[in-house]
Amino acid sequence: MNLLASFTTDQLEVGGLTPLTTIDYPDELAAVVFCQGCPWRCRYCHNEALVKRNMKTNYLWPDILEKLMQRIGLLDAVVFSGGEPTLQPALANAINDVKALNFKAGLHTAGCCPDRLKRILPLLDWIGLDIKALPEDYEQLTGVPQSGQKAWQSLKLLSEANIDHEVRITVHGNLLSPGKLQTLLQRLSTTGIKNIALQHCRTDNLMDPSLGANQINWENSPCINYAQNHFEKLVLRLPS
What we know:
CATH class: Alpha Beta
Helix content: 25-40%
Shape: globular
Number of helices: 7
Number of strands: 8
Structural class: alpha/beta
Oligomer: single chain
Strand order of the largest sheet: 1-2-3-4-5-6-7-8
CATH architecture: Alpha-Beta Barrel
């Protein structure tokens, strides 16, 4: 019997696949599907190859499903990352495909498409949402007007949903000063979000190399102290 015959024929645009990871879905063994295409041009993005849409790649969704079938019993979850997964009309069907294989479904998103996020929220088991800045500061980072409003609309949807989550803040000192970060954390603490991650921005392969070195000093950071005291869980992804 051809198991693939029961799955959707809609084609998810895929730019990459990580068959096994321990860090992309909390406490679960997962595969990560990297969706092709993103509407934003974030200056610190280090996945520039995944930004352009309608790119020919070596990844076909039916082939990925076949690989996932071979990992039933070995993996717990499948995470859709990017690029920006919610940009793709086929995402909901792809999530249903992996749920049909009894995998948990996770999503990494920047919140670019709140209307689409709202439709797929009931299908998901976990979301990692990137909040990059205060709404009014987004455009200088993404290059796209109104991007902050869309991201914070997605944040509101997540705060109202009963779903496991992590809100991630990637910090480059030239884009998010300690004072701005403190204000951002204060604003987030009023939203009902429970889980926060602070991530030191990597500077290899930046979309905008002019950002330069990330010289933010995390030692004795009042931002870390604030986050520890105002959220249920804080994850730190800082230089060792």
